[in-house]
Amino acid sequence: MHAPSLPDRTMEAYTDVTAHDRLEFLHALADDVDDVRVLHVNSTATGGGVAELLRSIVPLCNDLEINTDWLVMDATDKFFEVTKAMHNALQGSGPPLTDDMKATYRTVTERNALELEDREAEYDLLILHDPQPLGMLDRLEETMPNVPIVWRCHIDLTDPDDEYLAFVSEYTNRVDHAIFSRTGYIGDTDVPETSIIYPSIDPVTEKNRSLDAKTVGTERDRLDPLSFEKPLVTQISRFDPWKDQFGTLEAYRRASEDIPDLQLALVGGMAGDDPEGLELYEQVAEEAAADPDVHVLPDLPDTGVNVLQRESDVVVQKSLREGFGLVVSEALWKRTPVVGSNVGGIPLQIDDGVNGYLVGPDDAAGAGDRVRDLLEDDDRRAQFGENAREHVREQFLLPRQLEELLGVIADELDRPQ
């Protein structure tokens, strides 16, 4: 396993976007656990919301004097093929689970657990993110028998494949605590104790911070041939079948029947633990190639994403399944209304008819109609944008999530709160 590099981050950076009493309470919570050492483990340092979350939360915990490490698993392509199949199946559609797949999973997770034994640090609590590192439990129960283990599940488990869920439950029933993003995700997962913590965005990162006019202008120039003088709709998602870029293309084509010169930007990256990403990107690019107003942009820098979310007229999140979909809150934070599917965590972020619109996950035509409605009404877009900013400020900024996470840590270590 290896430790990713981390940015500098202090709680002081949040004073302008978070209520003073929340920041004071965070410091009080941290005082109760400031003599502990916490380890987060996940499967990739790049791409996807988990890595993005840890890149912010870990340095903030250290700033609060909670000794916190983050380690990323070292794994083979075959392992990531297995865990991607697990991810898809746990969200409702995957190949049969074979003995060979189970053996690959167990071999790699045990090897990573052995590497953890060789590290000098002694931890008081471990947080394992998603199914990839769960197999480490077989070894950790022997080497760290008194260390509480928390499982943080970031995926949508509302309709999992029974065989995969049973396999994962062989591990989840042995953790001390599980954190889910929605109550509906718990379902039949075998876990002893649970909490619900909504994910959040970090408002001070390069992707979400305020930008001066010069930076915006520079990034707009770099995004040429996109024109910001014409209507622009954007979706920002990993290239993943569940994100339904093809449905977004269909919605765009529907809206463009009534909106002259409409453009679509499909922006996304490939997570380090997702072997399907490149193949899907190529399929999307091929489908879009014939339309000069559709721009497929892989691995755009965070500042470019920030500008696109600010400068787009409407953002779309046309997911078929969605663990949470924080790209919705990213756009809403920048006062851009969002048309999204009513799946996963998206309905928690979009207040239908107030800061955006919700449509069925299979309703590309409805999504296109809602995009058209927003593009044809400047006043509505502006009002939705103002509503959006305040909704995210109240519900989906990082200090709130950190506060709730520290509460779980304190509970598991039996500390006062």
How would you describe the overall organization of this protein?
The protein is of the alpha/beta class and 417 residues long. It has two domains: 11-200 and 397-412, Rossmann fold; 213-395, Rossmann fold (3-Layer(aba) Sandwich). Helix content is 43%, strand content 13%. It is built from 15 helices and twelve strands. The strands form two sheets. It has a six-stranded parallel beta sheet with strand order 2-1-3-4-5-6, covered by helices on one side. The chain has a six-stranded parallel beta sheet with strand order 9-8-7-10-11-12, sandwiched between helices. Helix 3 packs across helix 4 and helix 4 packs parallel to helix 5 (137-143). The mean pLDDT is 93.
In brief, what are we looking at here?
The chain is an alpha/beta fold.
Low-confidence stretches: none
Structural class, judged by helices and strands?
A: alpha/beta
The CATH architecture designation of the largest domain is 3-Layer(aba) Sandwich
Total helical elements: 15
- Determine the strand fraction and express it as a percent band: 5-15%
Strand order of the largest sheet: 2-1-3-4-5-6
Please report the first level of CATH classification, the CATH class of the largest domain: Alpha Beta
**CATH topology type of the largest domain:** Rossmann fold
As a percent range, the share of helical residues equals 40-55%
Average pLDDT, rounded to a whole number, is: 93
Total domains = 2
Q: Element order, helices and strands? A: HEHEHHEHEHEEHEHEHEHEHEHEHHH
Radius of gyration: 21 Å
Protein name: Glycosyl transferase family 1
Subunit structure: Homodimer.
GO molecular function: glycosyltransferase activity
InterPro entries: Glyco_trans_1 (IPR001296), Trehalose_Metab_GTase (IPR052078), TreT_GT1 (IPR049438)
